Structures are given as C-alpha cells and as structure tokens.
Amino acid sequence: MRVLVLHGPNLNLLGTREPGTYGTRTLPEIDARLATLAVELGGSCASFQSNHEGVLLDTIHAARGHYDAILINPGGLTHTSVVLRDALLGVGLPFVEVHLSNVHAREPFRRISLLSDVARGVITGFGPLSYELGLRALLS
C-alpha cells in the first residue's frame, strides 16, 4: 500500500514554531520516521508539504492512480477549506486526518473540522505520534 503524507501550511516550521504546542521534532524528522515505519509495516509513503492551498489541491488530484490512501495534517486549512474537502472526496482515496496538538483543548474555532466527517478517522493530540498512529491505521 502506498500512502501520500500531506502537511499543510506552517508545518514546515515544526521544531521552532510554538514548541510548547507542537513539540521540537522537525518535519524532516517526522517524515523520516514515517518512511521507516511504512517499510516496517509492508508499505511505502511519500511526504509533501506546502503553504499554498492550490498546490495541496493539485497534489491531491495527482495522487489518484499513484497512491492508495492519504494521511493529512491540513493545519489551519482544517477549519476553512471547503475546496480541500472537495478535493479529498473527489479523488476517492481513503484518508486519515491528523493533528499534533489536541485541537479540542484549544481555541473554539480549532474544534471545527471541515474534513473529519468524511475522513476514515481522526487522530489528534499525540504530537508526532499522531502521524504514526494514522499511518498504522491506513496500513492495517
């Protein structure tokens, strides 16, 4: 099984951005761990990050026929992007939504996800382990 890992806006700043909320692991460290874990579980994954909604949409569209599932941390687009939801639905690939922080313990607007009701599952609040749990779920 091939999984596309998508990281939304500002996740390129992991390791230095609000470490009390998001931790100190960098995005390359998270991606390296996911690649190793995917192989251990008999699959593969490729990771991509963009701060641009349209680029994320194009990447989702291009995933069809190349990947079997998507693991996505949409960042702030979680709460605002109908087009991201439409793209994920449009390609018909199962996806898991992940978040590093517990969005339900933060500002009220962060508790609203435009993706959760159409995701295979949602994992939130476990730091980088959220990604690993999501990958395990997709590969199981």
What does this structure look like?
The chain is an alpha/beta fold and 140 residues long. The chain has five helices and five strands, in the order βααβαβαββα. It has a five-stranded parallel beta sheet, sandwiched between helices. Helix 4 (82-91) links the parallel strand 3 (69-73) and strand 4 (95-99). The longest helix is centred in the N-terminal third of the chain and has 14 residues, at 27-40. The model has no long low-confidence stretch (mean pLDDT 94).
Short description:
Helix content is 36%, strand content 19%.
Structural class: alpha/beta
Low-confidence stretches: none
DSSP summary: helix tally = 5
Strand content: 15-25%
Radius of gyration: 14 Å
Helix content: 25-40%
For the structure shown, list the relevant keywords:
5 strands, alpha/beta, five-stranded parallel β-sheet, 5 helices, 140 residues
SSE map:
Blueprint: E1 2-7, H1 19-22, H2 27-40, E2 44-49, H3 53-63, E3 69-73, H4 82-91, E4 95-99, E5 121-124, H5 129-139
Parallel strand pairs: 1-2, 1-3, 3-4, 4-5
Helix pairs in contact: 2-5, 3-4
